[in-house]
Amino acid sequence: MLAAILKDYNRLELEDVPIPEPKRGEARVRIRSCGFCATDYKAIKGIRRNVVFPLIPGHEPSGVIDKVGENAEGFQTGDEVIVQPSGYCGVCPNCRIGKTHYCEKSYTTGGDGPEDTRPGSFAEYTVVSLRSLFRKPKSLSFDAVCQTEPLSGAWKGVIHMSEMSVGDDVVIIGVGGIGMYCLMVAKAAGAGRLIAVDVSDHALDTAIRLGATHILNPAGVDVKSEIAKILPEGPDLVVEAAGPIEAVKLMVSLLRRGTRWNVFGITTHEKFELDGGLAHFLEARMDASFGTNPLAMQNAIRLMERGVINPEAVISHRFPLSRIHEAVETMGSPNRNKIIINP
Q: What is the domain range of residue 9?
């Protein structure tokens, strides 16, 4: 099969490799669509350094089961499926309380976080645990449902962790891929004023189209003062979905009584300061959101199947796997939203 193999930073190579065989409790999925996440891009470009080489990136796949291993109860060849990239054992204390993304034996197929990183889905086939499979609704495209994992992360961050309520004023800092999903979730959940902040005018134009009430580009305005004009009493929820430490610092600067923050985008180990007294007396609350779990995945599927959120509205580019290097270059451009790889 054809696969994109990351052999070192800035060294992504297309190669023919053996088709993997599923073991007991696993299935082999013929990949139809795979989202290109900023996490993949950071690994390829060496922006994040926790990569074990060689690695087949790609952790937002959907496809069709091509072969099942022994004990494949519930799934069979030909089933159209969505893959959750974060694997879990199902029996440790964290798994037993539903926090499978905290699993003591967690692994990822092509993603980030656990030390155990397995081949991902910038390839024609991927082998995954049956626990990681969800049935694709017939009414949805493969390109739509391959975005279940990032959409589920947005639902988990905005709704489950930060408990956004109808009418909340929300600021989303960074409306690339994950930030756009957070914006769509917030809009669907009844946000009052919904402010999108980004350095890309292309991303901001998309944010307006998808429901933002206001857009701000730090290149042209003082974002903090402009937000103060729009929200004199301050935001109820601020989601940092950008990545740079400056975005986190902006998030913290928007403190008011009862502000909730969600540290969502930054994955690098950088420091920022908090005023302990203000955080205490204003009852600020900080959450973070990493990865996904079956609860979030199932809720994301419901949002798509019932027409509440249409992930295809975020797609700006599609590339076959054979043009993966063009996709990498496009990921570095401000004039893109979600990129899909179609092996």
A: 2-150+292-342
pTM of the complete model beyond 0.70:
yes
Q: Which positions ≥6 away from 307 have C-beta within 8 Å?
A: none
DSSP one-letter string for 181-246: HHHHHHHHTT-SSEEEE-S-HHHHHHHHHTT-SEEE-TTTS-HHHHHHHH-TT--SEEEE-S-SHH
Q: Confirm whether 158 is domain-assigned.
A: no
* Interval 109-146: pLDDT, tens: 999 888 899 999 999 999 999 999 999 999 999 999 99
Q: What angle do CA 58, 63, 67 make, to 5 degrees?
A: 105
**79 and 219 co-located in one domain:** no
Same domain, 104 and 81: yes
pLDDT tens per residue across span 328-340: 999 999 899 999 9
Q: Are the CB atoms for 267 and 48 separated by under 8 Å?
A: yes
pLDDT in tens, 165-215: 999 999 999 998 899 999 999 999 999 999 999 999 999 999 999 999 999
144 three-state secondary structure:
helix
Q: Quick one: 262 and 337 in the same domain? A: no
Residues 66 and 120 in one domain: yes
CB atoms under 10 Å from CB of 68, counted, come to: 20
